Amino acid sequence: MTQQSSYGFTTDERAGKNSFFISPSFVDVHVHFREPGFGYKETIRTGSMAAAAGGYTCVGAMPNLDPVPDSPEHLQEELDIISRDAIIDVRPYASITVGRKGLEVVDIAALKDKVIGFSDDGSGVQDDRVMRKAMETIAEEGAVLAAHCEDNTLLCGGYIHDGRYAAAHSHRGICSESEWRQIARDLELAGETGCKYHVCHISTKESVDIIRRAKDRGVDVSCETGPHYLLLCEDDLQEDGRFKMNPPLRSSEDRAALIEGIKDGTIDMIATDHAPHSTLEKSKGLEGSAMGIVGLETAFPVLYTGLVRRGIITLDRLIELMALNPRYRFGIPMDEGDKVIIDLETPFTIDSSGFKSMGRSTPFDGMQVWGRCEETIYKGKTVYRR
Question: Which among 121, 273, 338, 343 is annotated as catalytic?
Answer without folding.
Answer: 273
